[in-house]
């Protein structure tokens, strides 16, 4: 019934909407159109029309608009879930266009999904549905939480949380990311407020919190002013603290590295690509950089350097001989040549390689999501006593070691043995 105004009326200056039934113009506003539908003249004409309706297209193999829109929505949601799990939202712009061209005659031909819509679907449709399913699965059972805090580029502190619970639906333990929470500061009080507010919004009871997994930060697991202490004092007295084994191994290695000579670090700072190419006919492997916050990355650096030690030593000695008149080059080359000619540094690297290899493998074992904890702690015990066996006499180790997994009493006995001079190798 609604159409463009005839040209005759337009020439008369009545360029408005036009009702073909009532033969009248209408002000082109949504409110005016709604009011016109309710008028008696319009409704009487609508009732006078034949009751027989046009045959539906579904009878001829075409889908109805309602079912078609439902299929389109399902396709959009499935694509949004796929992008959220495996790719960046930026790629959906291209994927949707490709699927639209390939899906002629199906729901994909009408697909209209780009970055903005995809991100909103993930935020307002998929996320609430997944959270509701998770909360229903957790129910009133006990659960554990792993938390960590970091700083993003805008200097706003972020706290990430992961929940671990026994799923009655899947009949196994499940680890699920809960989300990121912003907090102005990373002190214990602000972390506690953000933590409790987030769990209140989800409807999770804090008195069902069984264990808290954290790194070794004082704001997370300190004995007094920490997130763990506040939760234990105010909500769940039975709360257990589980420190990250990987962080503990890293801290132990970092503390032990302080006893090494600084020359071990200096050996990894210079390249020798040209000499390696002349000797072996190819470019050398990339030098592995040391991560400032993870001393365990030293294993890759030590392994590569030992493989290239002779070539580097030959390079720096050659530069010293050929650049005697150039003081700058000679000074740098002389320093590096002296470091490589010193057998102590080679001894350090040779000693470190097997220890770091075992330590890095143990760290990776604890990082696995499907790790066998019995095997992991058994390997940890073997590693501890293999390190102790390098400095502690066999008699002291036999008195200390007990079969099974690593125990606190064994660690205390090892500490006592290390404090006694007569228990150490090379001491009478």
From TrEMBL:
**Alphabetized InterPro entries for the sequence:** RNaseH-like_sf
Q: Show the PANTHER family listed in the entry.
A: BED-TYPE DOMAIN-CONTAINING PROTEIN (PTHR37162:SF1), HAT FAMILY DIMERISATION DOMAINCONTAINING PROTEIN-RELATED (PTHR37162)
Q: What is this protein called?
A: Zinc finger MYM-type protein 1
